[in-house]
Design a protein that fits this description.
mainly alpha, single chain, about 450 residues, about 5% strand, 3-stranded antiparallel β-sheet
Length: about 450
């Protein structure tokens, strides 16, 4: 793979549709970066796997960290909350820097790699819990936010005509990339080897993020694949159906314009609710399993299974959303996520291991599937040019939902695990109701244009 910029010599045209939206066509992926655009799915997927264990495998390391450093369980859960907070907080400013050209994709990934290493190093050697909050919670969280924002938005820019399945696939790496580390932290790591394991994992994952990020490259603004006509139904049945079910934004919205539509606020609230339920489940899945009397190895297996389904579910729901529509799939996912919480309670009370594994997997599917839905929906509603910033606004809801770990510990103390999981299920159901009110700016609830601009289509040869 080469990184030579070939687009300067490639001819292109700018097509304007009847809404005034501009499409830059004529340049192939080879013209722009010297390789097929599928690499901008594979490499972001690899990068996402490099940051996944910090969130999805962290709870598996709780016992060892508690014994090794004498940190309280509440402090460890709040450490995860700070990580999630910082990961979400960096999304919008990183997006703005990316779109202004001040922070190239490659350098955003390098910063993410550095933060990843610092996080694991601090968990291994921090002499005080405060330094672990800074090293893991802050620096690792911000690094992960850089990687997440860069990877998720990269794939949407390269696949504007059918972004759902591709975005879901890349997003899935953020979950199932943690699977081997769930077993490593729960079954292998102990007081005799935790420092070696944590530092080795940090070096390995940082290297993965850095190598993948080295080959990142954005397409030009308004780029559209030359083989797909943006002004007429495409010949490819997959692209045609995806565009029918999820029509492109009527224009390229700036963050200010996107916020004024009111849709960002609704999406923000809905994601805050569902993401909070997801993070709560990650933090307390092991606890409710152990309280039910299931063996530690079985509980770790349930957690790993949940992470696998969480990741693969993101790809599956992204593909389904191309076929049936982003909003319809989002509503279904909220219902599934809420129902799974009550299923976990029932299975734990009944001490039914099989159903505990099943509902853990279903919860993982629902908790993961929400993220590619909002990532793709943001581009569908507001366009790809400013998607890093626009999705950064939506994704910033994790500033609140990150409390799912820390506040979850408070609720569990007050109401017990059953009460906390009941509340989580009700919150997911409420998010489903909120999702019913979502619709793209400039379109009705069926996706049809409310008002068409009579401006004629223009074609400019460059």
């Amino acid at each position: 793979m080469t990184t030579t910029d070939l687009s300067a010599s490639a001819p292109y045209r700018e097509l304007t549709d009847k809404n005034g939206r501009v499409y830059r066509v004529g340049e192939s992926d080879i013209d722009i970066m010297g390789r097929k655009r599928k690499w901008m799915v594979i490499l972001p997927w690899v990068g996402m796997m490099g940051i996944s264990s910090a969130e999805y495998a962290f709870a598996s390391a709780e016992d060892t960290l508690h014994k090794a450093h004498l940190w309280s369980s509440n402090s460890i859960f709040w450490m995860l909350t700070v990580w999630v907070f910082c990961q979400a907080a960096v999304a919008f400013p990183a997006g703005r820097l990316r779109e202004s050209g001040k922070l190239p994709a490659r350098w955003a990934m390098m910063l993410g790699a550095l933060g990843t290493f610092m996080g694991y190093l601090s968990l291994a050697y921090a002499p005080h819990v405060v330094l672990a909050f800074i090293g893991f919670g802050m620096f690792s969280g911000m690094g992960a936010g850089m990687v997440y924002a860069t990877c998720v938005n990269m794939v949407g820019k390269w696949y504007p005509e059918r972004k759902g399945g591709k975005t879901g696939f890349v997003n899935g790496g953020f979950a199932y990339g943690s699977v081997p580390f769930v077993f490593l932290f729960k079954g292998v790591m102990d007081l005799s080897n935790y420092q070696v394991i944590l530092v080795s994992v940090g070096v390995f994952l940082a290297a993965i993020v850095a190598v993948a990020g080295y080959f990142f490259k954005d397409p030009p603004k308004n780029w559209w694949p030359a083989e797909v006509d943006p002004l007429n139904p495409p010949d490819d049945p997959r692209a045609r159906r995806a565009l029918e079910k999820n029509p492109p934004a009527v224009k390229q919205f700036t963050p200010g314009e996107a916020w004024k539509t009111g849709r960002v606020a609704v999406m923000w609230f809905c994601l805050a609710c569902t993401s909070g339920v997801n993070i709560f489940g990650i933090a307390f899945q092991i606890d409710i399993g152990e309280e039910a009397g299931f063996a530690a190895g079985i509980v770790a297996t349930a957690m790993a299974f949940k992470a696998i389904v969480n990741g693969t579910g993101r790809g599956v729901i992204g593909w389904l959303s191309d076929l049936y529509g982003r909003k319809q799939c989002l509503i279904a996912v909220c219902l599934i996520l809420g129902s799974a919480q009550f299923g976990i309670i029932w299975a734990a009370d009944a001490k039914n291991l099989t159903m505990f594994l099943v509902f853990s997997a279903i919860s993982g599917f629902g908790g993961g599937a929400i993220f590619p839905m909002f990532a793709a929906m943001t581009a569908d509603y507001f366009g790809e040019n400013n998607n890093a910033s626009n999705y950064g606004m939506v994704y910033s809801s994790k500033l609140v939902s990150g409390l799912g770990a820390g506040m979850g510990a408070v609720v569990v103390t007050a109401w017990g695990l059953n009460g906390a999981f009941t509340l989580a299920g009700c919150i997911a159901y409420f998010a489903c109701i909120v999702a019913l009110f979502l619709k793209a700016p400039g379109r009705d609830y069926r996706g049809r244009l409310i008002k068409e601009n009579p401006k004629p289509i223009s074609r400019e040869v460059m």
